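User: My instructor asked us to take a sequence, write out its structure as tokens, and then describe one feature of it. I'm not sure where to start. Here is the sequence I was given:
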Amino acid sequence: MTGDIRDARFYLVDESASAPNTEPLEFEEAFAKAHALADAGSTVRVLYTEEASQSEITRLVSHGIPTALVSGA
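Assistant: Let's start with the prediction itself. The structure tokens for your sequence are:
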């Protein structure tokens, strides 16, 4: 069973950065940052917790941003 979608957290992984950012983000902030980095040519991925909604995941994927469920979060 999943929790409240307001509890969803997203983690932006910029594969071109030297150090990973493990700060949890709200969806809109993660989407905006991932979209801007992808538009600038960076390779990004967004990891999400199980509370994320299908529409949030679909929005990321439809903009070409790969996603993956965070395991053990």
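For the description part of your assignment, you could build on this observation: The chain has a mean pLDDT of 88. Try explaining in your own words what that tells you about the chain.
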